[in-house]
């Protein structure tokens, strides 16, 4: 599987709201640098799983729509929109945020992530 295919498979899964699935994709030494509306957030393995757990408490469904994806060696750049369905209203899909991420793949796992987000 290419790095690009790996990233596509990751975003098609429910990993963002399912920490058990997320573990299948994470390298044990993962570091994510995320420039969010709250400023720079740096997450390690446990921090990423904690974020996934938080999302799972608020949302019953998660869907990612990728608009751009580019692969170069072990790096994949991806631009996507993240949609969710809330526990309170599972019939309505709402846009959570737009993202731009660069992932480095190591040992067929997410190793280094650099992402920026913009709320909808």
From TrEMBL:
Where does the source fall among the domains of life?
A: Bacteria
Q: What is this protein called?
A: Nuclear transport factor 2 family protein
Cross-referenced InterPro entries: NTF2-like_dom_sf (IPR032710)
Species assigned in the record: Flavobacterium shii
